[in-house]
Design a protein that fits this description.
Helix content: over 70%
Number of helices: 22
CATH topology of the largest domain: Na+/H+ antiporter like fold
Shape: globular
Strand content: under 5%
Largest sheet: none
Distance between the termini: 44 Å
CATH class of the largest domain: Mainly Alpha
Length: 526
């Protein structure tokens, strides 16, 4: 893929993403559909997925950004459910899809069929998370789906490597395969924790927002590469490192946090737009690689898509309720959720670009020099399952959520907890202000301003809690924020005019603009 082709792909994917957001669609799904539609356009450049590019340059930053945004405490609370999905379900899906493919595809060895199973086993939660946030899914469901997507790639890629090695001529026992998985998981966790520990202390020593953000950009690639070099799981290393640094982020500088959040949100948009567009654009290349029997492979792909969907449903419900039946301790500590919760989780199994990257990474030949058995068929079947789950489950997930009436009810509790926390924090801040106030009349205005601002922030959450309905008039804090934003817009217009009239230099303008931007970013939105 040359430079102009890449620029065209980025520009096109951004345009589609912008339109999808403008009209309330799901950008990942729209990008896939558009990619499928334009994949056969005459003269279109070759956009074949480069597995090295995806696994080394795309996957680590996406995982790291998601881990930074995840809650270590909530993931720890739901570790059992997440582990059953990210490990148990991945292996179950690998076996189910692999066995059915072995049965349906003539001449496909069992090891090669299990390679296909491992390729399509891990779901990608990007599309599901976008839908869930828009429809207000309960926080626990979002935590489980997010936690699953952080770890399931590690399980699938480890199973994939073992299956590829066996299909290529290596000999593995079950215990050896289990040993490879344990080594990859434990080694990745150790590497991720060690890098996170070092990076956190480096950041504390730097105390420079720009340098801290620059260090953060290197972290996911360093964690992934270092773990892979010692034959551990790069995915686990990136996830553990991201969770560690995200949990300790409040101890770092505020400037670095603001910059890092902006950087990673922009990177997420860029990479997600790119990878979902690439998924759709693979259709032409995958179909061209099939010499014959395309019709039968399309039918097989549809069957395997159904198997992947059903396998998730078959696994999720017992994994949700069976541990509670078998253990009184689990049942007492964590009562069973309504059946609608596992129903939503079981339908959020859309595959993503990691599946296609792993499929394209299958070697062309075995250790003996022979062609890898069924490679072209595996590519096509992996593509069908990936796109099939994205379209079937992705397009219907919003309707399933609405039909089941699954919505989060944390809003009131969150507002109450926020109000109490802000009140406690404001009390501590005012006590510290009283300790530092010397009573100097010269500083009286500054102290009064600080006291007023602290009390206003403390009252804002209580005001929202006291509103009986969304139709009520604005609270005083909301009214203040709205007016202050209008005032800032008026101030900004004056500064722009002064700059355009050359009454202030651009350097001065950028400095005052940053001050206005920081104040605007601090204004809490409804």
């Amino acid at each position: 893929m040359h430079g102009l082709a890449l620029i065209g792909l980025l520009a096109g994917s951004f345009a589609v993403t912008a339109l999808a957001r403008r009209f309330g669609g799901s950008p990942p799904l729209v990008l896939v559909v558009v990619g499928l539609a334009v994949s056969f356009v005459p003269g279109l450049p070759d956009y074949e997925i480069d597995p090295e590019l995806v696994l080394l340059l795309v996957l680590p930053p996406l995982l790291y950004s998601a881990a930074l945004d995840s809650s270590y405490l909530r993931i720890r609370d739901d570790l059992r459910a997440i582990s059953l999905l990210s490990v148990g379900l991945v292996l179950f899906t690998t076996a189910a899809v692999g066995l059915v493919a072995w049965w349906l595809v003539p001449g496909l060895p069992l090891a090669a069929a299990l390679v296909l199973g491992a390729v399509v086993a891990p779901p990608d939660a990007v599309a599901a998370a976008a839908v869930g946030r828009r429809l207000g899914l309960p926080r626990r469901i979002m935590t489980i789906l997010g936690g699953e997507s952080l770890a399931n790639d590690a399980t699938a890629l480890t199973a994939y490597r073992v299956a590829v090695a066996v299909a290529a001529g290596a000999t593995y026992t079950i215990w050896q395969g289990l040993g490879v998985f344990v080594l990859a998981a434990v080694g990745g966790a150790v590497v991720g924790w060690a890098i996170g520990w070092v990076v956190h202390r480096v950041r504390l020593a730097l105390r420079d927002g720009v340098l801290e953000s620059a260090v953060g950009l290197i972290v996911p690639f360093a964690a992934y590469q270092l773990a892979e070099e010692v034959h551990a799981s790069g995915v686990i290393a990136v996830v553990v490192c991201g969770l560690y640094l995200g949990h300790l982020a409040p101890r770092a500088g505020s400037a670095a946090r603001l910059q890092e959040q902006a950087v990673w949100k922009a990177a997420d948009t860029l990479l997600e737009s790119l990878v979902f567009a690439l998924i759709g654009l693979q259709l032409r290349g995958v179909v061209d690689g099939i010499d014959g029997g395309l019709g039968s492979l399309l039918v097989t792909g549809a069957v395997l898509t159904l198997v992947a969907i059903v396998a998730r449903v078959v696994w999720v419900f017992p994994a949700t309720y069976l541990p509670r039946r078998l253990s009184r301790r689990i049942r007492t500590r964590d009562p069973a959720p309504p059946w609608r919760y596992p129903a939503v989780i079981s339908w959020a199994g859309m595959r993503g670009v990691v599946s296609l990257a792993a499929a394209f990474a299958i070697p062309l030949t075995t250790d003996s020099g022979a062609a890898f058995p069924g490679r072209d068929a595996i590519l096509l079947l992996a593509f069908i399952v990936t796109v099939g789950t994205l379209l079937v489950q992705g397009l219907t997930l919003p309707s399933v959520i609405r039909l089941l009436g699954v919505r989060g009810e944390e809003g009131m509790a969150d507002t109450l907890a926020e109000a109490q926390a802000k009140q406690d924090a404001s009390r501590a801040a005012l006590e510290r202000l009283d300790e530092l106030d010397s009573g100097d009349p010269l500083h009286e205005g500054a102290v009064a301003k600080l006291r007023h601002g602290t009390e206003a922030r403390s009252n804002a959450a209580w005001e929202r809690l006291g509103r009986s309905s969304p139709e009520n008039d604005e609270t005083p804090s909301a009214f203040y924020r709205r007016l202050r934003r209008e005032m800032l817009a008026a101030e900004r217009a004056v500064f722009v005019r002064h700059r355009d009239e050359r009454r202030i230099d651009d350097e001065v303008f950028r400095r005052v603009q940053r001050e206005l931007d920081l104040e605007e970013s601090m204004l809490e939105r409804e």
